[in-house]
Specification:
This protein is α+β, with helices and mostly antiparallel strands and about 190 residues long. It is built from five helices and seven strands; from the N terminus they run αβααββββαββα. It has a four-stranded antiparallel beta sheet. The chain has a three-stranded antiparallel beta sheet with strand order 5-6-7. α2 runs antiparallel to α3. The radius of gyration is 22 Å and the shape is elongated.
Amino acid sequence: MNWNEFKKRVTYYLFGPHLEKNEQILHIVHRHPFLMFKAGLKIAFLHFFLPIFIWYIFPEVWFIFLVWIIYGFIAMNIMVFNWYFDAIIISDINLIDVKWNGPFDRSSVRVEYSKIEGTSYSFKGILQTVFNYGSIQVNTQGGEVRIELSDAINPPKVESVILSYQEKYLEDKNLEDIGSLKNLLTEM
């Protein structure tokens, strides 16, 4: 098994509960990993470097420092899972907005390509402009925002990917409808 096949299997395993049967993932949009840097440094300092330094001074109470470091590993994993599972899944059937608020609190919202009215993105500030991350919104019929991902990587590209898959889906759907209409007319 090569790396790409392994990566694909893991992706389908992790996002499987949000997919329908035989639904294919075409693209996944995550928040920019740059945003984890500050929180990651804080966790590393408070839960790894600091307890190891204090343990070096007071080695007799090693158990307290061990629990402290284990808590740091848990906090780091929660931060990484929160980044990975806050995503927009672009599938062959529809868009899925996945939110992960904790190990026992996750949700998803589905929007069919035929119900998408438009998409928009925005950059706010110099950091978002320089590092090319911003908010992306998918508007549905009626003008309401159904899917929104703040701090998404490369929003212009994401917008064009969503619109191209929407166009392909609608073309395929129209051809399918025309074929079934032809069959119905031939039977009559």
